[in-house]
Amino acid sequence: METFDYIVVGAGTAGCVLAHRLSARSRNRVLVLEAGGSDRRFWIRVPIGYGRTYNDPRVNWMYETEPDPGLNGARSFWPRGKVLGGSGSINAMVYVRGQPADFDNWAACGNPGWSWADVRPVFESFENHANGGPGLLRVTDVNPMAHPLCRAYIQACQVLGYRYTPDFNGEQPEGVGIYPTTTRGGFRESTGLSIPAARARST
After folding, report:
1. Are 84 and 192 in contact (CB under 8 A)?
2. pLDDT tens string 28-44
């Protein structure tokens, strides 16, 4: 019988990162158990493919909420990844860290270590940008590739009084602009790509 130092259940976004961290700089033997299969699929790797994976039960748990009284009893569809990389392998690849004020509010409510000053270095540690970065997750600025219609939309929003935001992860996270994506060379980038050093099995 094989033995492992750690068993990670679920190779989603967090599970893949954890497995990589546990195995990257040590002799730890790590077993990753994932109910779904491989993310080496055309419609996962090609960014526009998320429109298909949202309705593909081979890679999506296809969850629905309970009937919501506030929506006249309607159910909401909640896609969740059933594949290596988890929901990060089927989502729309938008990369936004979150509002700094939210983190600061959590810290102010008695949660030390959760202020924006505390968490920002953690975000930066796993990001990899075209101009460099220590992490494994490629974050791509797609502003230079924006379609002219996107530019026209942003200009129209500015005419209406909305602020232009050049970087949603920068000093001004609110406004209108082009968000960065978790892509590399035109293909989806997910944390599922970060665990080759760990031992993964589909179950």
Report:
1. yes
2. 899 999 999 999 999 99
Whether the CA torsion 22, 25, 28, 33 is positive or negative: it is positive
The 10 Å Cβ neighbour count of residue 53 is 23
pTM here?
Answer: 0.84
- What pLDDT score does 64 carry? 97
Q: How far apart are CA 82 and CA 66, in angstroms?
A: 20
* Cα Rg, the chain, nearest whole Å: 19
What residue has token string 């379609």? 147
User: pLDDT tens for residues 13-28?
Assistant: 889 888 888 888 778 8
Let me know: does 30 contact 22? Beta carbons within 8 Å. yes
Task: Please tell me the distance from the alpha carbon of residue 70 to that of residue 144, in angstroms, as a whole number.
Answer: 42
Q: Which residue, among 96, 93, 92, has the nearest Cα to 183 in the 3D structure?
A: 93
The H or E element that residue 8 is part of is: strand 6-9
CA distance 126 to 5: 24
Return the number of other C-beta atoms located less than 10 Å from residue 135's C-beta: 15
What average pLDDT does range 127-155 have in this prediction? 90
Q: Position 137: which residue type? A: L
